[in-house]
Amino acid sequence: MTGWLAVAGLGPGDAALVTPEVEAALAQATDIVGYAPYVARVPPRPGLTLHPSDNRVELDRAALALDMAARGARVVIVSSGDPGVFAMASALFETLKTRPGHDPDIRILPGITAMLAAAARLGAPLGHDFCAINLSDNLKPWDLVERRLRLAAQADFAMALYNPRSRARPQQFARALEILRDECGEKRLICFARAVTTPEESLSTLPLSEARPEMADMRTVVILGNSATCRVGRWVYTPRSALP
Ligand code: SAH
């Protein structure tokens, strides 16, 4: 039996947003590897072994998946959203780099990332140039987060902010809001999109002056508009043009 390894994005939550390509890989798999809440989104069936793991063990997970595929298993590593956005695809390649000469059958299967699902619910806040920043300092120094926030704000990018706030680092999002107010002014629109496309979904849009750190948690993606982002009715959008 020839093994293979797919790294699949399960999308933001709604089963209707899992791509047919990902569904087909899950249907053919013998083993599913991933962070426990994501593995729990894959329905169990005979012949399928689930390997849930804790957060922050990405490299162990990638090594397990590579070992199983080398032994002939059909392995899917699952991520939420897209596997290439702050997720498992990079961890897999980092692990592969430590195994010179190993060239397994790998496929990266894209998914709908949180910022795009959130933007669609809100309207079109990412309709002009934008960037995505992970606010977690688990894998990079906080100074770098601050520098990127400031420079992105100065370049007038709209921004999608992933991993905005966790119990382990409650102060940092408050600091991020201070920096954004300083660079963008109090009137800039900011959107909090929580648990998008799930039954717990909530959305709110307000000026930066009214944004509070408690409005975000680890299930929230925060979208900051650029200087032209505005509202029409209940929608938020960023014009396609930056011409005066
Ligand atoms: N690979 C994922 C991101 C993993 S980082 C993707 O492409 O979406 C985890 C962060 O993603 C969370 O802290 C949150 O900021 C965001 N996120 C994931 N799913 C979300 C959802 N359904 N609604 C809002 N934010 C979400």
UniProtKB/TrEMBL annotation:
<dbReference type="GO" id="GO:0032259">
    <property type="term" value="P:methylation"/>
</dbReference>
<keyword id="KW-0169">Cobalamin biosynthesis</keyword>
<comment type="pathway">
    <text>Cofactor biosynthesis; adenosylcobalamin biosynthesis.</text>
</comment>
<protein>
    <submittedName>
        <fullName>Precorrin-3B C(17)-methyltransferase</fullName>
        <ecNumber>2.1.1.131</ecNumber>
    </submittedName>
</protein>
<dbReference type="InterPro" id="IPR035996">
    <property type="entry name" value="4pyrrol_Methylase_sf"/>
</dbReference>
<dbReference type="InterPro" id="IPR014776">
    <property type="entry name" value="4pyrrole_Mease_sub2"/>
</dbReference>
<dbReference type="InterPro" id="IPR051810">
    <property type="entry name" value="Precorrin_MeTrfase"/>
</dbReference>
<dbReference type="InterPro" id="IPR006363">
    <property type="entry name" value="Cbl_synth_CobJ/CibH_dom"/>
</dbReference>
<keyword id="KW-0489">Methyltransferase</keyword>
<feature type="domain" description="Tetrapyrrole methylase">
    <location>
        <begin position="5"/>
        <end position="210"/>
    </location>
</feature>
<dbReference type="InterPro" id="IPR000878">
    <property type="entry name" value="4pyrrol_Mease"/>
</dbReference>
<dbReference type="GO" id="GO:0030789">
    <property type="term" value="F:precorrin-3B C17-methyltransferase activity"/>
</dbReference>
<keyword id="KW-0808">Transferase</keyword>
<dbReference type="Pfam" id="PF00590">
    <property type="entry name" value="TP_methylase"/>
</dbReference>
<dbReference type="InterPro" id="IPR014777">
    <property type="entry name" value="4pyrrole_Mease_sub1"/>
</dbReference>
<keyword id="KW-0949">S-adenosyl-L-methionine</keyword>
